[in-house]
Amino acid sequence: MDVRSSEPCPLHPGQRTPGCGSGTGGRITKKTRSRKGKRGRRRKSKKSRCNKSSPPYLPPEAEEGNIEYKLKLVSPTPQRFEHLATQLKWRLQEGGGEAVYQIGVEDNGMLVGLSQDDMKASLHTLQRMAEKVGADITVLREREVEYDLDRTSRKITEVLVRKVPDDQQFLDLRVAVLGNVDSGKSTLLGVLTQGELDNGRGRARLNLFRHLHEIQTGRTSSISFEILGFNSKGEVVNYSDSRTAEEICENSSKMITFMDLAGHHKYLKTTIFGLLSYCPDFAMLVVSANTGIAGTTREHLGLALALKVPIFLVLSKVDLCSRATVERTLRQLQRVLKQPGCNKVPFLVSRPDDAVTAAQQFTQSTSITPILLVSSVGGEGLQLLQQFLNILPPLSSSQEQEELMEQPTEFQVDEIFSVPDVGTVVGGTLYSGVCREGERLLVGPTDAGGFLRLRVGSIQRNRSGCRLLRAGQAATLALGNFDRSLLRKGMVMVSPRMNPTICCQFEASIVLLFHAKTFRRGSQVTVHVGNVRQTATVLCLQGKEALRTGERAVVRFRFLKHAEYLRLGAKLLFREGVAKGIGHVTRLLPNSNNQDQNQRPHRHDH
């Protein structure tokens, strides 16, 4: 309808439409004309938006990180090629041996796209660059970009560049496996690491169990470690084509170390110890599709959220349920994740493209929570899970890693063994610094509050020999004929120049997650700080007489048995029955008598 004319009303002939000059005798005023003009312009702009869409954008390219945007890489000059290879080397260093290239994208993030010939030439150039720096490329996905209906489509290609491993310095990520008892955690890990599907009666999990009672009951009661490797081309490396863990390490550019934690409630202290002591990068919560959220599922989810460990969900046993049951469990999970306590955004992974998007957004946004559906018997969804783990980038940057390595050596003692013909062996995680074969360290604190000297013999990482251990890596250290009875879990091995101090009393800023009554002075709780686990007494609450659920305070604790080595800012979790609280250490009150007992030599020190 022309906005400059008035037409009869179609319902009442002879009358003008109310919008066309009502109350003015059919006369079109300037106000009416402008209003109609705006409507017309809105209709025209709407039509133009249908015919031509605005170009899509990605976030602008960051100076740091392992993601690089390139519009095209067609026939570069020798000088330009050298510059591109140096740039790729920098991106690989930022990503710990991994980099992601977006071909057909400008630096500001606009998706321009390339023709088929230009894309082929760009990928060839990227392959030459990767060969120069000792890496391989893998095409993750391709997307088409269309600006309007008349223009031919162009493609955006996302490429993963991964460095070929040298001297065992592969990218290592630690994933803690959580979930209720009988949810299929150990079976899923057995299928992933062994490369064979389960028979429906738990055959795949037998290689993961460490004790006879675990085999008899089918329930994990200790912490076991399993490895899954990916080579430079993104292919899975596991025990199906490698006989030993050493072969898996040699053929892998990226290693996923799974920590199989206990699901039964009576082994909760073991699960908490694994989450706090081994410092996992991610947590995988396994939920059975036929039982849904039951038992310790909520508790494990709450622990991961409280300790700020990024978590993704795996819905197992989908082959046992009908489609309606799986969807009902999925809705239940999504409802729990969206609750105010979680504030997560569920991301269902159902296609390979979803796996790439979920892995990238998972580390960039703390609110994204991927959900994958798998079956350990039928094999459904296993490839999507493997692809998700393959693309999953590290959380820490290369700069943070270098800063940790420059600090004094600090190794947390988590396990102690006696190996025939080797002697005493300790297992744990190197929190900071570097550790070499033959290095002399101090271990403690002992029951008397001192530190003893020792010498590191050999080092093994992922069951293969290693000469140098870097910060953040887990390993076992051989200590020769050092007396095992002098060692215990919760000790640390530190550099002699560190002059470590220990304390029986410390203060922490806490929040009480749950308590049936009140939390007050004199309460005794089990405190978990890193690899330290000991009963402590509450000496005082600053500014308050008692705490109730959800309240915060600064609390002073005192260990009951012996002094411990703690770090300022370390995460803290305490429990008393069903009561739980979290926080961080804010102040240490060192023992006055520990300085003269430090660096006491041991009679077996060589």
Structural class: alpha+beta
Helix segment tally: 12
Shape: globular
The strands making up the biggest β-sheet line up spatially as: 7-6-8-5-9-10-12-11
Structure description:
By secondary structure, this protein is an alpha+beta fold. 24% of the residues lie in helices and 31% in strands. The strands form 6 sheets. An 8-stranded mixed sheet has the order 7-6-8-5-9-10-12-11, sandwiched between helices. Strand 16 and strand 17 (452-455) form a beta hairpin.
Short key terms for the protein model shown above:
eight-stranded antiparallel β-sheet, 12 helices, alpha+beta, globular, disordered N terminus, 606 residues, disordered C terminus
Task: Itemize the secondary structure elements and their pairings.
Layout: H1 30-51, E1 67-70, H2 78-94, E2 98-103, H3 116-133, E3 135-145, E4 154-163, E5 171-179, H4 185-194, H5 212-217, E6 224-230, E7 236-237, H6 245-251, E8 254-260, H7 268-277, E9 282-288, H8 297-306, E10 311-316, H9 323-337, E11 345-349, H10 352-364, E12 368-373, H11 382-391, H12 398-406, E13 410-419, E14 423-432, E15 434-436, E16 440-444, E17 452-455, E18 459-461, E19 464-465, E20 468-470, E21 474-478, E22 492-494, E23 503-514, E24 519-520, E25 524-529, E26 532-541, E27 546-547, E28 552-559, E29 571-576, E30 579-590
Parallel strand pairs: 1-2, 5-8, 5-9, 9-10, 10-12, 11-12
Antiparallel strand pairs: 2-4, 3-4, 6-7, 6-8, 13-14, 13-22, 14-21, 15-20, 16-17, 16-22, 18-19, 18-21, 23-28, 23-30, 24-27, 25-26, 25-29, 26-28, 29-30
